Amino acid sequence: MRASTSPVSPNISEILGDATIFTATGDPVMFKDLWDQTEGIAVVALLRHFGCICCWELASTLKEWRPKFDAAGVKLVAVGVGTPDKARMLAERLPFPVDCLYADPERKAYDILGLYYGFGRTFFNPASAKVFSRFESLRKAAKNYTIRATPDDRSSILQQGGMFVFKGKELLYARKDEGTGDHAPLDDIFDVCCKVPVA
What we know:
The structure is a single chain. The protein has helices at about 10-15, 55-70, 85-95, 110, 120-125, 135-140, 185-195, and strands at about 20-25, 30, 40-50, 75-80, 100-105, 160-165, 170-175. By secondary structure, it is an alpha/beta fold. A 7-stranded mixed β-sheet has the order 2-1-5-4-3-6-7. Helix 2 packs across helix 6 (about 135-140). The longest helix is centred in the first third of the chain and has 19 residues, at about 55-70. The two termini are about 20 Å apart.
């Protein structure tokens, strides 16, 4: 595993695989069923929550990158904290492809991956200052934004996200967001995907 900013167990996909989340349409799905567990390459982006404007910005950027990932044979999986109806708000209003958007209302995947959580990280982490350099992309993502996409469980807004790349069950890349809006550079993610020999 490379480019990790914090330790993640190398066998995390085994533990994560049995976690059940939901499609944006409300169907339960196990994490291990989201991509080919033998040789498939997947970029798994864990958004903070569906009502976070920085996550709308990340989702917008992921949507722009999706054709590159598709052309490289990489499956894009975007997961957010909240219920499927909140996921659909983001999908319909941004818009974002519903076929790669999932909801984790209980933050199961976030807990398993050990993603950061808390008031200080959410509101006072120096890493969050990066969002000010992306004002234009935030403005663009906010065009159809609605705060109604925020989870009903307000403690969920303290959850941070992260970015992971898997080849089958092998974790190739792990990055936990240090603060709100502290997203992994997608150029780096794409480089990791492209350097993986496809079987």
